[in-house]
TrEMBL record:
Residues 36-288 form the ATP-grasp domain. GO terms for biological process: SOS response. Keywords: ATP-binding, Nucleotide-binding. Signal peptide: none annotated. This is ATP-grasp domain-containing protein. GO terms for cellular component: cytoplasm. It comes from Candidatus Woesebacteria bacterium RIFCSPHIGHO2_02_FULL_39_13. It comes from the Bacteria. Pfam families: ATPgrasp_ST. InterPro entries: ATP-grasp, Peptidase_aspartic_dom_sf, RimK-rel_E_lig_ATP-grasp. SUPFAM superfamilies: Acid proteases (SSF50630), Glutathione synthetase ATP-binding domain-like (SSF56059). GO terms for molecular function: ATP binding; metal ion binding; ribosomal S6-glutamic acid ligase activity.
């Protein structure tokens, strides 16, 4: 990870948080209740709210017996997970509850805590606040064994309708069952393309296993991954935020839900992924993204971790000639064999326009974006589209993007650039066609 690729605090604010988030959107993100109202109106899933406390009088009139066995008590404008009480079950005497930290709380304890919230003990700038009680989400079975007591969540950075980077935050004993990194939770990077965890970062170093266990933290498959990403992107449409972090939990039955949004999300996600956020953000800044589905498709193409490269040692290193046979898969899952030029001098792969059209690859749903500059051809100036492309090369399936060009006068209808040649060796002694 090069320093030029890393997003720092000043750049985060000056280049992204403030230019792409207006005052109304930022105010909405600072209020969890306002965020939930906007998301609910847009049919973006959020946990149900059971009660809201604006004044001390509401504590007296509220019927505490109606509270369920499990719930979460939170400050509306809290920061960094402070002031949150997560109740997991009823106490044995049925007159109180047990928190995720195994502490017993009573109605009087909750009332005192809510009074602290109302007085601004946990809010931004210590201003008077509102307290609310919401649905307890619990742990999805796929993540239960990696999390200590509390509910893990997924942080997704969204910019220009594209999910740009993601991490799983796992509660630990040190964090008291909370998924906040500064309290001791584990940050686990996630490959955007597959939803599979890649590496884990904790206390300034990379770790392979959950502390004091032999449970690997890499290779975890996040359930409903595409839906997780689409849910995060839909928050931009609902709130008007252009750059933000979405905190998502996986409800065991209901699926992905938004906990909260942050227009200045923390930067440790870069450590979790061992990748710079700035480079990714710059790459998608000028793209024209149609909707959440399109944004997710763009992200999966641009930010894939290239898992095929990781198994090259097992498979054996493939040696390619300068011209190879490849299979191109159409949107209808049919395959066409063609010859491809292997060219490490080109960054991106490209495909002939006539072939792409014949295979149905120029359908609007498969166009990721169009390059903003035009290029000259015999037909005059034209915009050059970039499409999603699935190919099989030397027994390895590659999901990538390719620019569409006029290759009718060239020897092969497709060129494979160096972005798609990682893990291969090229035999340059072979004669080129």
């Amino acid at each position: 990870m090069q320093s030029s690729e890393i997003l720092g605090l000043n750049a985060r604010g000056n280049l992204f948080s403030y230019p792409y988030n207006n005052a109304s959107a930022k105010e909405k993100a600072n209020s969890k209740l306002a965020t939930k109202r906007a998301l609910k109106k847009a049919d973006v899933p959020v946990p149900d709210i059971y009660a809201k406390f604006v004044t001390p009088h509401a504590l007296v009139s509220f019927d505490w017996s109606k509270l369920p066995d499990a719930f979460a008590l939170k400050p509306n404008r809290g920061l960094g997970g402070e002031g949150i009480i997560i109740v997991k079950k009823r106490s044995a005497d049925a007159v109180g509850w047990i928190t995720t930290q195994r502490k017993r709380v009573t109605v009087d304890d909750l009332k005192l805590h809510i009074m602290d919230i109302l007085e601004g003990a946990y809010s931004i700038d210590s201003a008077p606040d509102v307290a609310y009680i919401e649905e307890y989400v619990g742990r999805h079975k796929a993540l239960r064994k990696y999390s200590y007591r509390g509910t893990p969540d997924i942080r997704v950075i969204v910019f220009n309708y594209v999910p740009t980077m993601a991490m799983l935050r796992l509660p630990t004993k040190e964090s008291g069952g909370r998924a906040n990194l500064h309290q001791g939770a584990i940050a686990v990077g996630i490959d955007i393309a597959t939803g599979i965890t890649t590496k884990a970062y904790w206390h300034g170093e990379y770790i392979r296993y959950k502390p004091n266990t032999k449970r690997k933290l890499h290779g975890i498959k996040i359930p409903l991954w595409t839906k997780v990403l689409e849910t995060a992107v839909r928050c931009q449409e609902a709130t008007g935020l252009g750059y933000f972090g979405a905190d998502i939990v996986l409800h065991p039955e209901k699926g992905p839900m938004i906990l909260e949004l942050n227009f200045q999300p923390g930067l440790s996600i870069q450590l979790a992924n061992a990748a710079g956020l700035r480079k990714r953000l710059e790459r998608i800044k000028d793209l024209e993204v149609r909707d959440a589905e399109h944004g997710v498709k763009v992200a999966k193409i641009l930010f894939a971790e290239r898992f095929a490269d990781r198994v090259k040692v097992v498979e054996g290193i493939k040696i390619l000639k300068t011209v190879e046979k490849v299979k191109i898969y159409t949107p209808k899952k049919k395959a066409r064999k063609v010859e491809a030029r292997i060219d490490t001098g080109a960054l991106r792969s490209s495909i002939d326009r006539n072939l792409a059209e014949e295979l149905g690859l120029l359908d609007e749903s498969n166009i990721l974006w169009k390059k903003r500059y035009a290029y000259r051809s015999a037909h005059g100036k034209q915009a050059r589209p970039v499409i999603g492309l699935n190919i099989r090369l030397a027994g390895r399936k590659i999901k990538t993007s390719a620019s569409v060009a006029n290759r009718s006068r060239l020897s092969t209808p497709i060129l494979i650039g160096r972005r798609d040649l990682q893990g291969f060796l090229i035999d340059s002694t072979e004669a080129e066609i």
